[in-house]
Amino acid sequence: MKTFTSLTVALLASAQAASAFQSWVGSNLYYAAGLDTDQQDTLLCALSEAGVKVLRVWLDGEEANQKGTQHVAYPSLEVDYIGDWDDTVLERYDDFMVNAKDYGIKLQISPHSWNALDAGDVYTEKFGREGFYNSSEAADMYKGRIAHVLQHVNKNTGKTWAESGDMIFGFETQNEAMNGLGADFLQQHSSWHCDIATAIKSGLPASTGEGSIPLVMTGGGCCDDTSVQDAYFDCEALDVIAIHTYGPSEFATDRLTPFVDKAIDAGKKLLFQEWGVCYFDTENNNCPEGTALSDEDRAANLTKWAGEIGEAGIPWMYWQIIPNDDPHYGYDFEIGTTENIFESFKEVALAAREYETPFDFSPWLL
């Protein structure tokens, strides 16, 4: 295995001689519920060959045929008002998670996204964007959504999702909570994550009989410093603190190692839950259009930045791998399983296992 930098080694030694474990990688696909069985197999087979252990998915509704994937549309979990349940997305993931397990991959569940709130969903209609985070009524109603998800019974196994640690890696509080409300608002309301995490934790069993109890985690922020608020490290219910960032300076090993040390001291795990390599020659975190980079340049960026994250000792999840050619529109970090660049991703993902991490995720991986 590749070892940590000298700074990280010194930090680990001072943190009660923390043990080193094998790192790992995951991926994201927000519209995964729309895939048919053949598309699932295409994606899961490719991810498995790349050594991917976890696929992060969302429970928001999506229109059909996104990112060049010819998938079906499906409704949001709550349709016309809060508590108006349509379990289509849950039932589709009932099948998906059983299939994924056969490929050695677990699902990570994001029960709600800032993207849906920002777009004006049922929670926005009732509480507004800021009100969703500073209203006790909103928190209680959102906890109802959490409970509904945890208590949903997988039609294939007869187990609730809370009991499905053999197929579910973990549950997060919300994808990129408060992302558009500014750093001050986020800091003032950072305890929101702990409140929701506590609700998730209280809905999980003491044991599952098969597999681990799913982890409880945050859903990242707009960048690394907003992803790692002090309050998160003090929250007993949070097992994992997730980092999201697309800025290359924030991939740097020496920038990330203080977060690693802080997590070790707090008894938490870190996960680089979202990052990606822009298809265009623009700034990596400003990626809507531009001149296409060559596969060689993208592969070089992929290798460099994954290596920096790996040297810091943080497992990572790529945004995002799709089961078809990437059509290259919108913010474009996608890598298609059918493209040459996927072979570069596969090499980088498999090489990630050579890095050490102080965070032991092994009980939660297949």
From TrEMBL:
EC number: 3.2.1.78
Domain of life assignment: Eukaryota
Main location (coarse class): secreted
Keyword Metal-binding: no
Localisation: Secreted
Signal sequence interval, chain numbering: 1-20
Family: Belongs to the glycosyl hydrolase 5 (cellulase A) family.
Name of the protein in its database record: mannan endo-1,4-beta-mannosidase
Source species taxonomy: Eukaryota, Fungi, Dikarya, Ascomycota, Pezizomycotina
